[in-house]
Amino acid sequence: MSDQYVICARAVHKHKGEFVAEPGKLRYLKVPPKSVPKPEHELEVADWAQEVRDLADGMRDGLVAKSGDVLIFVHGYNNDIEVIRRRQMRLQKDMHTAGWKGIVISFDWPSDDSTLNYYEDRGDAAEVAHSMVTGGISVLARGQADGCQTNVHLLGHSTGAFVIMEAFAQAEKYGSLFKSDWRVAQVAFIGGDVSSGSLAHDSQWARPMFDRCMRLTNYTNGFDHVLAISNAKRLGVAPRAGRVGLPADAHSKAADVDCSQHFQSIDPKKATYFGTFAHSWHIGDPVFALDLSMTLEGRIDRNFLPTRAPIGGKLVLQKGKRPAFERDWHLDGV
Question: What is the pairing mode between strands 19-31 and 4-12?
Fold first, then answer.
C-alpha cells in the first residue's frame, strides 16, 4: 500500500480542522496509507506535481520511462471522503493488476453523504469546476508548456462527468489557457450523469472537451436505476448518457461501451463495490479495469479491444484477455 495523491476542493472546518462538504481552497495532498485525507497532508503544488509526474514515468522507482500516465478520478455526488479514498485505492489496484503502469489520483470536490443533497451537490460541482481549471488543468497546461510528457486522462463517475465537462467549458474563459495548446489524452465516463444530448456533435457545452481530448469513452448500463431517478428529478426530459448511451448524432470522438449484459452476470453479494451497486459496480470489477486500461494505453483500436464484442451495432463489454504477444509489439526487426 502506498501514498495517495489527491486534489482536494473542500473547505476546512474552522474549529475542528477537518474537511467539510463545502467548496474551499484547492489543496494538493499526499495521503499516507490507511489515513483519510486531512489538511495537514498538503504539499506545495510544485512539489506535489513533481512527485506525481515522477511516479507516472517511473523515476521514483528507478525505472525511467519515456512518458507516464496519470488518471484523474472525479467522483460523483453523495460521496464522503472515506468512500472516495477506498475507490481510488481499489481503482489503482485493479488497473495495475490489469497491466496498466500509471498512477491514479483523485479530484475530491465537496459532495455530501446524503441522497437528499443532490441539487446542492450539483451546485457545488458547477462551482468547483472552476477550481479544476485554475488548479488542475492549468497545472497540466504549464507542465505541457515545459515539455512534460505525462499523459493525463480523466475518469468521471456520475456527477463527476458534469464536473469534467464544465471544467473544459470554464477553461475557454481563461485567455492563457484558451490560447495554449494543452491537451488531455483519454476521457471516460462511468454512470455519467449528463444528458445524452449534451454529447451531440453540435453541442456547444461539449465542444471544448472534444477540442482538447483524444477520445471520450462512455460506459453505459441500461439497468442503472440511480440515473433513472436523476431523469425523474429533471421531469424525465433529459435521459442520462450513463443509462441510454450517446445520441444518434454523437461527436465522432465519442464511443459507447454497453455494459448492460456484463452487469447482469455479476452477483452483487460476491462483488467488490462502493455505493449503490447498479450505479457503482465499475470500480472493483476486473473486466471493466482491463477495458479501461487498454483504452488509456491506446495501442488497440476501440473496435478491436478483446474486452469488447460488436453486437447489434454496439460495442458490448465482455470478458477478455490481453493479446498473447502484446508486450513484444514494439520490437524492431534486425
Answer: antiparallel
- Give the range among 82-86, 132-136, 143-147, 270-274 with minimum mean pLDDT: 143-147
Q: Which of 107-116, 137-146, 293-302 has the highest mean pLDDT?
A: 293-302
How far apart (Å, rounded) are the C-alpha atoms in residues 250 and 198?
9
User: Are 69 and 102 within 8 A, CB to CB?
Assistant: yes
The helix (H) or strand (E) run that includes residue 104 is: strand 103-108
* Confidence band of 63 (pLDDT split at 50, 70, 90): very low
All cell numbers assigned to 101: 503502469
Pairing state between β 42-43 and 19-31: antiparallel
By the 8 A CB rule, do 1 and 34 touch?
yes
Rg (CA), the chain: 19
Neighbours of 309 (CB within 10 A): 15
Chain center to CA of 230: 20
User: Which has the closest alpha carbon to 31: 52, 61, 62, 54?
Assistant: 52
Nearest Cα to Cα of residue 201 among 156, 153, 242, 251: 251
